[in-house]
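Hey Z.,

So I finally got round to the beta-D-galactopyranose thing we talked about over coffee. Here's the setup:
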Amino acid sequence: MQTGKFLYGGDYNPEQWLDRPDILEQDLDLMQQAHVNVVSLGIFSWTVLEPEEGVYHLDWLAEIIDKLHARGIQTILATPSATRPAWMAHKYPEVRRVRADRVRELYNRRHNYCYTSPIYREKVRAINEKLAQRFGDHPAVILWHISNEMGGECHCPLCQEEFRRWLQNRYGSLAALNKAWNTRFWSHDYSDWAQIESPAPQGENAIQGLTLDWKRFVSSRHVDFFRFERDVVRQFAPNARFTTNMMYRFHDIDYYEMAKEVDVVSWDSYPTWHKPTETVEETALDTALMHDLYYSLKNKPFILMESTPSFTNWQPISKQKKPGIAMLSALQVIAHGSDSVCYFQWRASRGAEEKLHGAVVGHDGRTDARPFREAEEIGRTLPKLTQSLGVHRIKQAAIVHDWNNMWAIEGSCGPRNAGMGYWKELALHYNGLARAGITVDFVNQESSLEGYGLLVLPMVYLLQEDFAQKVCRFAENGGTVVVTYWSGVVDETDLCRLGDTPYGLTQLLGLRRTEIDSMYDGELRRCVMVSQPDKTATHASILCEVAALNETDPAEPLMVYDEDYFAGCPALTVHSYGKGQAYYMASRFEPEFYNEFYETACRKAGLASCKPEHLAPGVLATLRGELLFLQNCGDKPATLPDGGELAVYGTAVYQTGETLQRIL
Ligand code: GAL
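And the result:
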């Protein structure tokens, strides 16, 4: 999708204003004033597009697309499958989802269609065909937005049948399935495929292999639905390009699988800025982690499909972005590899669920309101950074994030049912690396590790044999590996590994796990560096693993626990392996530990930091191509490398090279 400019705009819902042509006209003027060059249309338009079964009204949409186009505004056109008309849900109950407790939902809300229902697929096919026939080769339509925020699960009889077919395909025989799930436990062996049901609160929920496979199945249904919708459009629009908008820390879909199907990854970012439990820098890092994950899915620039210009209305407390935060977050997403900044939403709706959600144009329609002024300024600023457009990022460090592993950790019982804090663990490593000025990608267990210097395995509980071997080869060839506690515990069907663990990594790490103690929230164990035994280095929390060093070729302990019965046992070790080395972290430590650790580990691994020296804490440095972005997420103005001052929430952009040249 070569547009030559950063896409700038957002979700536009003109179907809510068809009785107000004056407002639709005003939108065109205001969009131009705000430098908008793209809108997403039709996401929730099905009742207007097909008010009665088989009766299609597309002229209104064509008129709007044409009028926008005449003003230089392009369209990302959605298929309307995320919300279906009431007539359909009433006439064809099977299109409504069945919940895990086996109750079929009444017509309600959105994002709740049955993805298996043949009738629903037929209805989606019909509307998508109409849209594709009419707009497939429209020069303004640059991208197709399939559905919206796909997710959730359906437990209807059609889905149960499909699940059984999926299992038959995967396992071939009931004997193989029973073994893979260890159903002999509590005498739950299946003797007929028809006995297998999806997990339910009042049904089976103790066979964790079943739960894990159900998650895989649900994910694959969404990917299949995406493929189905895309291919219908493609029949009439062979050159069309496709995306679907992804979400924050999303569980239901293995986005690596979805990414294989889309042309460009897109996602919706709604950070909870200014919450009392987090600094602005921490919120910025949490957001950056997601941007980097979505960049990594295809290893190429992505699209920010939605963000609020001001505030949401669904967070526990929906706070306004303070002045400067809208610009900071817009430039941050560009720095991390996006080729767009888009909002939900252009104009605030008058009624129902989202009437009090922020918008570029509010109910007062004023252009001197802060969201509009800030949006106008951002629209004016983006063209100054065009040299970053389409630019890929350098490869330095990678963190393993694998949906199968995350599902398995969450589905397991013990050792901490009070929460394993998987995302928290990812964030600790990510933040340490990002603060050190290192570009971070994410990989799963299928990814190539080519080009990376450092690889982190945070809580890779479900570790595939072939991936463990790949990790060892990575170190052998000179890479640096960091493995944490709760890694290498089970196989792909959540069966515990037999023998020494972390499975497949004991030679690499030079040690084996012997025990694991779970900690209450707030319970801490002091740790000291071996080189400085009198000074507390950090504290361990959540899970404390006890490890025994290998008898031959053991790891070197760098830090040890200094309390409890495991005092003196290694908490952090390093071990040389081939041309590289491997660190092992036996527990979760305090956040500051990771800053120091990664600064040193990256230097030793030969990774060059993009962060100029002597920057104040809270200033984040991000490199995209030749542009260096410095963003002040602290609470005081900061001094820039050229001696200038960077205001709180300010961004300075430099052209890198022999010297730094400021361009923004
Ligand atoms: C997104 C959704 C939009 C809108 C927005 C509000 O998750 O895709 O349609 O609801 O949230 O923040």
